[in-house]
Every structure is written in structure tokens, then in C-alpha cells.
């Protein structure tokens, strides 16, 4: 059976998940030092942290998260500040105190459109643009006007974007991704599946991603182990200079 020449990484994440953005940067750091980075394919899969969130939310996320975890808003801001500081170490300028609690299903549907129309490369561009819009620009990515602007600027067709947003197209694909994450046992994101063999949970350090990449590559490209000494060394083998007797 012929093995694939590429390493495929599927990433379950949400566009309002700060650790997903941090994890994205750490994986990119690992890939920057990986000799075979051009042979790594990355595909993003959908995961909704809060499917019940309003489709056009306006409430700031800090208060919503504080209530969810039974903390005061001051406590939550302190925790968020720690994450802001950590993200800065990865080159990200988070505006967590300004983000809006909103539903992300429409953003995920556009990510499926990007994958289908432009492949993994276009999908990655849109993923980065959506994460930046939410975390670094504090834009409301539940708003269709914002989504359309970001998607078209990334390279998606304006008419197709409008058509998808006006319908429920790709909703089934989003649901299928979520179901697959549950089947894998993932209860949170980011969650990475490498070559459908290795599962990595959370925004691991770049060194961890590097280790997984090297291991996956080695398994996809096995090296023959020599048995019985060097080829042609008194073993009755012919070489370029003839056949020894």
C-alpha cells in the first residue's frame, strides 16, 4: 500500500477561542523550523464553543465568561490580562476586553466555503483573517457585513459569500466536524489530529509540535534497515565494477 507523501494536520478550533490563535502561532513556529514544511497540509475543522450564543451578539465577552465560571468581572479581567500577556509573547496583540460574545456558525460555514473553493491555502488565510479580526481588531464576526468584508478581502468570491450567508449552506458540514471531534473524544479546542493517528490537545509549546511533526514524517517515509552488513561486503553481490568471485 502506497503511503501519502504529505503529513496532514486537521485542526478543530473556534474563531473566538484565544488558545486556538496562540496554538496557531506555536504550530507555525514549529513549521518554520521543519525541513519538510512544504509537504505539510493543514485543514481547519469546525468547533463551536458556545452554539447557544446569539447570532448577532452585542454583550462583551468578559461578563459572559465571568458568569459562566462563577467569577467576578474583575477576576475575569485579571485572568484575561494574563492571556493577553502570554499572547504577546507569540506576537499577538489581543484586545480581549473589547471582544463581543457572538455565535460563530456563520464564520465556520465560510471557512468550509473557502476550503471547497480555494483549498487549504485559502482556508488558512481566511482563518487567520477571522482570528485577527476578532482578537486583534475586536470586530463582531457574528455580523454578516463584517464576515463578508473579511472573506472578500481574503479572496473569496463576493457573490458566493453573500449566497452562503443568506442560506444555511455548509451547516451540515459544520455539524459533521463537531460530531467528529466528539468521536475523537475532544471536549475542548484547539485539538489537532496528525495523519489520523496522533491527537494533540491544547496550545502546546512549539517543541511539542516539532516532535510530532518529525515522528509523523518518519512514519510516512520509512527508511530501510540493513541486515547482514554492508551491501556487497563478502555477501555474493554484484556492483558497478562487476561481480567478485
TrEMBL record:
Name the Gene3D superfamilies on file.
Answer: Glutaredoxin (3.40.30.10)
Residue ranges spanning the membrane: these are none
Q: Which residues form the DSBA-like thioredoxin domain?
A: 9-213
InterPro entries to which the protein is assigned, alphabetical: DSBA-like_thioredoxin_dom, Thioredoxin-like_sf
Q: Name one Pfam family in it.
A: DSBA
Name of this protein: DsbA family oxidoreductase
